């Protein structure tokens, strides 16, 4: 008897939640100030996603974020997708998340395909990126050799994606958890930024001018600390003042991983050894500076920290410039760090020594509205549901 009552209560609670979400969305759609722009997004019925992921089986599980697990799914046309649980978020947060994701259109950012909100499940559907994350590829787990030029290209791709989020997205976005496992590689080894667990949104009112000399604008937003130890901006950790330069610090750590091939803990240990210190003491920025030998015009005395798999491929001048750029990213004060667009330009200059074609942030924008896709983008899976998501909810619960 009690179990029957509990089931009815659960069904009613789910119904109320879905209806409330539909009405909230419908209300937003009628308000010009908060118009939800679902550019190219699709609604995926829950029963379809169950089929795609083999009933969300353990074998299909490919990762786990702070808001739930991620599953690989296969659509009937053979296109692979990544289905992320977002059930720990509130209804309002979920609405914001799918609206924001639908506005992100860039080749170097994982593509958002659609969403599902049924049976108490909040699910986000992305393209599946085939060649795994950067950390696994550096370690050789995926069986791919990342030579020096390819590592520079991956850094450039990632910088383009982040520069887009910081400067061109609407609204502007701070990722908050940049790390090597949140950079994925597609079948052509193009890098995509992934790992959006409710990224921090930035309104124009939150932007402040922090330097009257260089006219640069630095966005500071009060935020609970979120991120991964080792990649976490120390200034953000100490002050809880988040800025786009927090992503820059994390990106600097990724650059060191590309140079050394080591994990962050191993990088710290290597520089501790070089300057004869324990783990306590200065930040990594100071440790690297202390280890540099300016008399070594080839490797700054740091040849031993370069990944042995690429040490014979590294051009000395490229290495020095890339290392110097990484150190700029790791400066303790956020206002002293470069912007992602500056980082992008500097890496592009380094790559041009190898004859690479120069590009800009906007070269990799993707126009969802006109349904034009870059060659590397997999075809969009289509939902068998012919109606819109709002129509689906109305039919399901008998709404008008």
TrEMBL record:
Q: Does the keyword Secreted apply?
A: no
Domain named Protein kinase: which ranges? 56-351
Residues bound to ATP are 84
Report keywords, A-Z.
ATP-binding, Nucleotide-binding
Matching entries from Pfam families are given as: Pkinase
Stored SUPFAM superfamilies: Protein kinase-like (PK-like)
Specify the domain of life of the species encoding this protein: Eukaryota
Enumerate the GO terms in the molecular function aspect.
ATP binding; protein kinase activity
This one is known as Protein kinase domain-containing protein
């Amino acid at each position: 008897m009690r179990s029957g009552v509990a089931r009815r209560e659960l069904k009613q609670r789910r119904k109320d939640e879905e209806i409330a979400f539909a009405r909230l969305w419908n209300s937003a759609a009628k308000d010009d100030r908060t118009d939800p722009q679902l550019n190219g997004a699709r609604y995926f019925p829950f029963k379809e996603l169950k089929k795609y992921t083999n009933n969300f089986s353990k074998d299909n599980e490919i990762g786990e974020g702070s808001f739930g697990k991620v599953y690989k799914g296969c659509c009937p046309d053979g296109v692979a997708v990544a289905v992320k649980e977002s059930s720990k978020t509130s209804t309002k947060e979920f609405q914001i998340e799918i609206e924001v994701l639908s506005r992100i259109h860039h080749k170097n950012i994982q593509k958002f395909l659609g969403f599902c909100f049924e049976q108490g499940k909040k699910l986000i559907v992305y393209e599946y990126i085939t060649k795994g994350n950067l950390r696994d590829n550096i370690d050789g787990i995926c069986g791919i050799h990342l030579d020096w030029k390819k590592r520079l290209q991956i850094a450039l791709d990632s910088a383009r994606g982040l520069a887009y989020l910081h400067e061109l997205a609407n609204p502007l976005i701070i990722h908050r958890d940049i790390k090597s496992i949140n950079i994925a590689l597609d079948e052509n080894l193009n890098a995509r930024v992934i790992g959006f667990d409710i990224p921090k949104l930035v309104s124009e009112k939150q932007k402040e001018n922090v330097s009257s000399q260089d006219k640069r604008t630095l966005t500071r937003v009060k935020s609970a600390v979120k991120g991964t130890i080792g990649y976490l901006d120390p200034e953000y950790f100490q002050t809880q003042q988040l800025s786009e330069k927090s992503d820059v610090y994390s990106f600097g750590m990724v650059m060191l991983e590309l140079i050394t091939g080591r994990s962050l803990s191993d990088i710290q240990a290597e520089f501790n050894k070089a300057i004869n210190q324990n783990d306590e003491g200065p930040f990594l920025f100071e440790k690297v500076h202390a280890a540099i030998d300016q008399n070594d015009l080839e490797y700054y005395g740091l040849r031993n920290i370069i990944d042995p798999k690429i040490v014979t491929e590294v051009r000395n001048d490229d290495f020095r410039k890339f290392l110097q750029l990484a150190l700029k990213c790791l400066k303790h004060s956020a206002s002293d760090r470069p912007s992602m667009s500056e980082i992008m330009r500097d890496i592009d200059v380094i790559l041009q020594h190898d004859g690479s074609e120069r590009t800009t942030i906007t070269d990799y924008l993707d126009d969802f509205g006109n349904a034009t896709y870059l060659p590397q983008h997999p075809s969009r899976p289509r939902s068998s549901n012919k109606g819109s998501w709002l129509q689906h909810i109305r039919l399901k619960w008998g709404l008008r």
